[in-house]
Amino acid sequence: MSRGGRTTPARVRKVRAAHVVEEDDVLATEEPMEIRVVTSEDGEPHERSLSVTMRTPGNDFELAVGFLFGEGLLRSNHDVDRVVYCTSPILEQEYNVVSVHLRDGVRIDPHRLERHFYTTSSCGVCGKTSLEAVRVASSYAIPANRPMVRRDVIERLPERLRGGQEVFRATGGLHAAGLFDAEGRLECLREDVGRHNAVDKVVGQEVLGGRVPLSDGVLVVSGRASFEIVQKAAVAGIPFVVAVGAPSNLALDLAREFRMTLIGFARGEAFNVYAGSDRIVDAG
C-alpha cells in the first residue's frame, strides 16, 4: 500500500429540503497501523509486534513513540535508536507498519508485552476492566503548584485548538490534541481519527525532542476526557488537562490520585473544574 494521506476524496449525494445534489467531498482517512519494537539481545535483533491501532496517517513515528512511552515501555528519547517504516516487498501494508528500534542495552518489561490488544479509533483501553489493570506507573512526579493558568487563558484554549485543526475544517471528522504553555501559546498540535492517537502524537513529538517531563504543559483535547487521556498526560508529567467534552469517572479518579487539574466542558467563557482548582488564577 502506498503512503496514505490524511484525507480521502469521496462522492456524496446531499439531500436538502428543496433539492438533492451530488458533489465531491473529502473524508478523514482511517487506516490500521501496526507498532513493532526491535531490541538487541546477545547481538541479535528481536522484533515484536505490540499493537494495531486505527489512525489517520501522518506523524506515524510520533504516534509509535508516544504509544510506547504511554505504555511505560520507553523512558526518554535516549531509549530510541531509530524509527522506520517496514518496507518489505512482501508486506502489503507498506506504510502501515512502524518499527521502533531501541538502543543496545535497552530492555523492556516482558510483562508489559503481555498487553497485546487491538486499539479501536474510539477507545484506547477497550477490554480492560479495572483501574489497576490499566494504570501505567509514571517516571515523573506531577508538580504541586504549577503551572498557574489564568481563567481568561483557559477560556481561549478551545478556540485556539480549533484554529489549528486544518483537517477537521476540511472533513469535520477528526479529534485534536494540543500542548499549550501557561500563557496559552500553542506548542504542538496533532489531529487524528482517534482522540488517544492525537495525544500520543503530541507526546511522541515531545519525547523525540527530549522535552519530557512536560511539567509546565497544558493539554487540551477536542473531545471528552477519558481515563486514557488523563493517564497519558500523567505519564508525560502534564499537570493540567482541558477537555471540550465531559470527563469520565475514572478520569476524575486518576486526576485526583495524581493531583492534576482536570477541566471539562470548556466552551467559551464557561468551563467546569473537576480537580485541581488551585492551579487556576481568578477562578472564584
Topology, number of strands: 15
Q: How many DSSP H or I helices?
A: 7
Largest pleated sheet: 6 strands, mixed
Helix content: 10-25%
Across the major sheet, the strand order is 10-9-11-12-13-14
CATH third-tier fold name of one domain: Cytidine Deaminase, domain 2
State the end-to-end CA separation: 55 Å
Q: Which structural class do the helices and strands define?
A: alpha/beta
Brief digest:
The protein is α/β, with parallel strands linked by helices and 284 residues long. It has helices at residues 60-70, 131-134, 151-163, 166-171, 195-208, 227-235, 249-257; strands at residues 7-15, 20-28, 31-41, 44-55, 80-85, 97-102, 117-119, 149-150, 175-180, 186-192, 218-221, 240-243, 261-267, 270-275, 280-281.
